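Sample intake sheet
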Amino acid sequence: MTQRPDYQQLQDALEKADADMYASESHGALCGMICAAGQADLETWLKQVFVDFDLNNMHIKEASQLLAGLFENAKVQLNDAEAGFQLLLPEDNDSLEERVEALAQWCQGFTYGLAAGGLKKDQKLPEDTAELLQDMVEIGRAAHAEEEAGEADEDAYMQLCEYVRMGVLLINEELQPMPPTTDIQH
């Protein structure tokens, strides 16, 4: 079974492969594609990550293997009944500036993925989804000043990550509602 790659491992592989997306951005794009269409095709997504998708290129092939693990993991996590979905972001011991930038990239990727997955700009959306998408566009513009991060900054970042994480689950649920079950109790 393929497994979810570590953020830094994937970021390094994507840089070596001269990818068009960062690790967090590629995960956001995949999640957006799945939320918009209810599914995603691995090759279609890989062609979003790499403009020149060529598996004869060893670096692209290596990065694609890591991305395949992320692909499988995202499909499972987005439909996890226990809300186990996690954003692919740098570790907590990385600088707050790097983590904020990665969260912004994740949100940019997510909104891009929604469009790539078939969501139309003028499509009527549930109110919560429309509001969350607007917030994600704003988060995608986020930047962090290069000053010493305090505890309040860390708390704000963690709350923002949780807001995005739960927002993605809600968007997925609203755009891809589960059919009602016909559970008959005796």
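Comment: The mean pLDDT is 90. The chain has one domain: 7-174.
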